[in-house]
Amino acid sequence: MDKGLLSYILIPLLSAIIIPFAARNRPRLADLLANATLVAGLANLAWLALRPSVISGGFADIPGDGLSLLLVATVYLVALCVTFFSAWFVKEGMPNRQAYYSLILVSVAAMCGVITTSDFFTLYVFVEVLAVTSFALITTDESAGGIEGALKYFFLTFPASALIIAGIAVLMITLGSLSYENLHIFMSSDIPSGPITFGVALMLLGFVIKSGVVPFHTWTPDAYQGAYAPVSAYLAGIVTKISGVYAIIRIATLMRFFDGRAQALSGILMFLGMLSIAVGALAALRQKDLKRMLAFSSISQLGYIVLAAGLGTPLAIMGAIFHLFNHATFKTVLFLNSASIEKSSGTTDMDKLGGLEHSMPWTSWTSIVALLSTAGVPPLSGFWSKLLIILALWESGLKVYAILALLFSIVTLAYFMMMQKKVFFGKKTPASENSPEVSAPLLAPAVLMSALIVALGLLFPYFFSYVRMVAERIIL
Question: Domain residue spans in the chain?
Answer without folding.
Answer: 3-475
